[in-house]
Amino acid sequence: MATATLTSDKRQAIMDATLELVSKHGFEGTSTALIAKEANVGMGTLYRYFETKEELFKEMFIHQREQLLGIILSGIVGGETTIYGQFSAIVHALGRFYMAHQVEFEFLQRYSDSSYMKESYLDDSAIILAPIANILSSGGEDFRFKALPTHIIFAMVYGPMISIIQLVHQEKVSMTDEMLDSITRSLWNSITEKKTPSEM
Amino acid sequence: MATATLTSDKRQAIMDATLELVSKHGFEGTSTALIAKEANVGMGTLYRYFETKEELFKEMFIHQREQLLGIILSGIVGGETTIYGQFSAIVHALGRFYMAHQVEFEFLQRYSDSSYMKESYLDDSAIILAPIANILSSGGEDFRFKALPTHIIFAMVYGPMISIIQLVHQEKVSMTDEMLDSITRSLWNSITEKKTPSEM
Amino acid sequence: MATATLTSDKRQAIMDATLELVSKHGFEGTSTALIAKEANVGMGTLYRYFETKEELFKEMFIHQREQLLGIILSGIVGGETTIYGQFSAIVHALGRFYMAHQVEFEFLQRYSDSSYMKESYLDDSAIILAPIANILSSGGEDFRFKALPTHIIFAMVYGPMISIIQLVHQEKVSMTDEMLDSITRSLWNSITEKKTPSEM
Amino acid sequence: MATATLTSDKRQAIMDATLELVSKHGFEGTSTALIAKEANVGMGTLYRYFETKEELFKEMFIHQREQLLGIILSGIVGGETTIYGQFSAIVHALGRFYMAHQVEFEFLQRYSDSSYMKESYLDDSAIILAPIANILSSGGEDFRFKALPTHIIFAMVYGPMISIIQLVHQEKVSMTDEMLDSITRSLWNSITEKKTPSEM
DNA sequence: CATGAATGAGAATTCATTCAT
DNA sequence: CATGAATGAATTCTCATTCAT
Prior knowledge:
The structure is a homotetramer of 200-residue chains.
Chain A: H1 9-25, H2 32-38, H3 43-49, H4 53-76, H5 83-100, H6 102-113, H7 124-137, E1 143-145, H8 150-169, H9 177-191, E2 192-194
Antiparallel strand pairs in A: 1-2
The structure holds a DNA duplex (21 and 21 nucleotides).
């Protein structure tokens, strides 16, 4: 006997359909009628679970962002003991996940650039930056992070990741394990500097 | 009596209004009626100068992209003789321009992510990557570029620049000359590696 | 509780309003907003039942033409055994129906002359001429049809009918049974000739 | 030295362009901008000669109808001495002219069926019927016109002529002199009846 | 709870008409 | 007189949202 689901089947079907359609046609190109049809529910049902179209998108964005945060955290708490190990785990996890999940990635991108993303409480940084900042404050033995604001350190890793994942989705490059390793090292180099012997 | 202007006043007023409004409300959030009102022209005038709303956006995008390319090229042909000098000039020029021109920056970002940007000939990379690729192929004395596809090398510079410029516009960080210098060096580090003495 | 109607009430209301308005103001003079208002439905409802304004007109035309064909056929299969009897039945049926149904008549006329009527498969002649041609090929005992193309024979009956029906609608003449009989005989005379005794 | 023209060149150019365009695209499909362009005049010029688009069409219609009347009268006053000779001259003149002048014919037809033709003073009949009625009242030696209203007699000739001319323009039939003779006799038969010997 | 027909405000686009040059 | 850029009301069509069944 199936136990009651936390999120009802219909609700989930709507979210799945929305993810798929928005990633394909964008927010304005995706009508509520289309979502309902793709999710095999009536229009009224959609409005039972989500107050407005905008609210649906917002909830989905929050959900996707939680997923993103989970990926980042899994890298941090994963078992790697060195800072670089954790950094590498995060970059690899992010890259692998979003390269394989184009619709989720495109949804996040489209939302971030759309006019929907105006309310500040939706801001990534507060949530995502916290664990990062934590790492940055912890010292390393033979390196130090650049003397730049945490936001910028984050942007210097996240920015290139986004651009590169887009390239993969556009099939302009195909990613290999070696390339991802190399990219990881490069990004690490861009945000750290070696301590001079006298500092050690 | 006013002399005839090369690009009509009305046409320019429409483009100015569009830039402003799209950067604020996005493409779908900006109606032609609003553009016409903001530009102080009648609806019909807009359609005298631009065949459709979509055409208006495309023309503006092409114009903005030419500006972007101009900035990049000006860094290359600017007078710097070393590769790093040129790289630095480009990063500084890009950063300074788009930090100071939020509406132009946001227009470009929104267009690139919108469904308007589907026609492949609008693709930046072909145009913008050419001069970059040229630099990469030229050797340096004591460094070499990472063995990564040109697209990725480009993404590792352009990606963080975009993210950082956004941070500045969101007023999450304020950029100083020292920071921009530091960022430039970091990005350079991320895409190059030192030759070992034996290679020199 | 009202039972489901075969053709929805709203759809029928839209078609009724269209017939009325188009016959009065013509196609271009009849806006979709006006049709919706007259039919007591929202604008969106019109577009639920008909893809475009043009499609609405086409569907209505096809419907009206079927009615016309039905009238002609009913004259042919009606029970009259002589050729003249059938001819007379058709002319009387056509005349009576369209004199009494001005809006249907005017809709047909307007559509036939409008630029909507460009698609060749909408051409009456193929459909309407078939039963006529059939009659013409059958011989009579003491008459023969003029040696003119079927199209022209048809035009020599249909053309005057149209003109006369218009006169009635304009109230320039009022039609009596005797007049219709007289007209029927006249039209018959115009398309047939008596066989000479030697041919009989 | 050219004498002042009764109708200015520009005015005539506008009317020529209108005739051509309306016969091709219909009234609503012909914009004033298109007319001005085709006539090689500015938009303002059009409005110097004609108060409104509607007025332009009306004046053109009146002009075309005068032409039609001229053709009919030329048949009457042409030299034919018998009634049938005059009738035949009219039918032939009408047929030949409008088969050769499709644009003029279509303009007349479109106008008659359009919503422009609402003002009763534009009514053909008053003008065109007068000379016809005159003929009908004159007796013949061995025939008499059917006892039907003049309007209907007229419709029984004009109606089929219109339908047949349309067939020619649609290239569904090609008209020969013999066919036109035959049609003329048929139409004559349809509106007259032979006097019996005792009546002569 | 689920449905989808109905709604109407709002969007892009056209075009007859005007008027400053 | 001639011009054509400028105008904005009007038109067709879409789609987020509601509500009777």
